[in-house]
Amino acid sequence: MSVLHLVGPTGLSDPARPSGGNVYDVRVAAALQALGREVSVVETTSDSLASVLAEVPSGSIVVVDGLVGSAAPAALKEARDRLRVVVLVHLPIGVPVSSSGSLLDTEREALSAAAAVVCTSRWTRDWLAATYGLPQERLHVVPPGTDKGTLAEGSSTGHRLLSVGAITPVKGHDVLVAALASLADLRWSWTLVGASVDPTHAAALWSALHGAGLDDRVTLAGALTGPALSAAYASADLVVLPSRHETYGMVATEALARGVPVLASDVGGVREALGTPLPGLLVPPDDAVALAAALRSWLTDRPLRSRLQVRAADRRTTLAGWDRTATELSAVLDLVGR
Questions:
Q1: What is the per-residue pLDDT across 213-236, written as a single tens digit (0 to 9) for each?
Q2: I need a surface site. Which of 23, 215, 261, 305 has the fewest CB within 10 A?
Q3: Is the domain of 294 the same as that of 276?
Q4: Order of strands, sheet of 189-193, starting from the edge strand that comes earlier in the sequence
């Protein structure tokens, strides 16, 4: 079997930048190797993609992360007659919430040059098909896997709130701060796990926390991985995902893998990640009032917490591991390689 080349963004293996896309790339590469595929992983930028692809032997299959490939149509066009290029789209760069709408034409051109496009959710597949007119037969859905952790016990009060995600506007932590500021009469604590990749936004968030007098209730844990991240999930009663956009929501499945319910914005592919019956609560994005109301219900309604905890524990049993992700991706690669 020939070598599979996986091209990811610079910083892919940096533990200080554990984004969902990076985790997916690293974990699926390892799972493919466990299936017997030889995988070569390279980190690069969109500007350097053409030179990286030029070094790959002709006829090879190359999986290019969309953060690199979607912004480099010229490189993909140049390589398409020599290589079989598959673009792995975690978050379309043309989605308005994540970038300028001017990138729509760039991404459309890039994905049209790919032999296949792998999406991490049905929502992403449908968005790409509708927005770019890509044929359905070239779009494939391969959801992320999960590692089942120990079932979290949860506290009797449900007051331990956890959010996991890079501190950027798209993750909506500012909306959660506004919601928490209206819940001072209730008992709660909030741990925020995530790297500060947007200094201006992070400074505004810290200022809002201090201005609302929430400092003594909030723990800013920074980026966590491995056992430290597992421990954060294990000690949580509720994971809060107030994102303005999520193509899937790996944080949700990571929480559910430990039986922890999720309160999330109803955006993108989050419903796919949560499954049914809903093991948590959904609210409109960018709506601090609705988020506060949902949190108040969680914190004051013990029967509600019990129902959602049972559903989360049930959902835990249906989550697939990274071996299935690798098997499904491998099937796509075999199809492309014919």
A1: 998 999 999 999 889 999 999 999
A2: 215
A3: yes
A4: 218-222, 189-193, 160-164, 238-241, 262-265, 280-283
Asked if 124 and 142 count as a contact pair (C-beta separation under 8 A), the reply is no
Containing structural domain, residue 104: 4-145+320-337
Asked if the structure places residue 173 within a domain, the reply is yes
Identify whether 133 is part of a domain.
yes
Structure confidence at residue 197 as a pLDDT band (50, 70, 90): confident
Greatest CA separation for the chain: 65
User: Residue 16: helix, strand or coil by DSSP?
Assistant: coil
**71/59 same-domain check:** yes
Residues 116 and 15 both lie in one domain: yes
Q: How many domains are there within the chain? A: 2
Query: With contact defined as beta carbons under 8 Å apart, do 292 and 309 qualify?
Result: no
Per-residue model confidence (pLDDT) at position 236? 97
Q: Give the three-class secondary structure for 325.
A: helix
pTM of the model: 0.92
> Which residue(s) pair with 86 in the sheet?
63, 116
Determine the length of the chain: 338
Alpha-carbon span 302 to 81, nearest angstrom: 60
The DSSP call for residue 269 is T
Structure tokens of 33? 């190797």
**Which token pair is 226?**
């491995």
3-state DSSP assignment of residue 321: coil
DSSP symbol at 176: H
Same domain, 194 and 299: yes
In the predicted structure, residue 100 carries a pLDDT above the cut 70? no
* Domain identity same for 63 and 164: no
Q: Which CATH number does the domain housing residue 19 bear?
A: 3.40.50.2000
Q: Which residues pair with 40 in a beta bridge?
A: 5
User: How are beta strands 218-222 and 116-119 bridged, if at all?
Assistant: unpaired
| Residues 103, 88: Cα–Cα separation, whole Å | 17
Q: Is the pLDDT of residue 77 over 50?
A: yes
> Is 152 inside any structural domain?
no
Q: What is the DSSP string of 108-163?
A: HHHHHTSSEEEESSHHHHHHHHHHH---GGGEEE--------PPP---SS--EEEE
